[in-house]
Amino acid sequence: MANKVTNVLLVGVGGQGTILAARILSGVLQEAGYDVKMSEVHGMSQRGGSVVTFVRYGEKVYSPLVEKGTADLILSFEKLEALRWLPYLKPEGTMVVNDLALLPAPVLLGKAEYPYNALDVLREKAKKLITLDAAKIAEEKVGNIRTQNVVLLGALANNMDIPTETWEKVVRESVPPKTVDVNLKAFAAGRQYQ
Q1: Which CATH number do you get for residue 178?
Q2: For residues 174 and 107, what is the distance between their CA atoms, to the nearest angstrom?
């Protein structure tokens, strides 16, 4: 049997918790027995620039980089980033998108327009698109808006064949002890979205 490698992209803006989410995802995959390669690319991430993490897993993975048109899953923490990385999604791939607009500097300076129709464009082009308002979910169901990244991981987990117990174990090990309960609650809230 051929070595099947699954490609996942996590894309967002600096400060959204994409790096922690990618580390949790990688930990979950390793815990599940996969060979995992991860590569982070930061574009001025400290100042609200793009952040993308490539995660590849399978029986044996040789490179962490995902080529255009080969991503099985893309988890986007922001709508513009979803559009930006859409060319990486394979035709039958799944995209999980946070319904959030973070205006980049060129838009704030009046030098560019924000694509407020991003979700419409994504609906046309992505075969399987799941959208959720992670901030609203984090605030209303968890009581902590800073857990949006873990809410999004919960939604991503619905598209991966890994037991909930494995995710919960790695979340427990990856977040500060005093935030374990709120993060587990955030993960469970995200799991409710298909």
Answers
A1: 3.40.920.10
A2: 35
6/162 Cα distance (integer angstroms): 13
10-42 pLDDT, tens digit each: 999 877 888 899 999 999 999 999 999 999 775
pLDDT digits over 50-88, tens only?
889 999 999 999 988 899 999 999 999 999 999 999 999
For the ranges 37-41, 123-127, 181-185, the maximum mean pLDDT occurs at: 181-185
CA distance 25 to 121: 27
Q: Tally the domains of the chain.
A: 1
| Residue-number span of the structural domain to which 187 is assigned | 5-191
pTM to 2 decimal places? 0.93
Distance between CA atoms of residues 29 and 160, nearest Å: 10
- Token look-up 């587990």 returns 184
Q: How far separated are the first and last CA of the chain, in Å rounded?
A: 30
Q: Which two tokens stand for residue 172?
A: 């427990």
Per-residue DSSP letters for 114-160?
--TTHHHHHHHH-SEEEEE-HHHHIIIIIS-GGGHHHHHHHHHHTTS
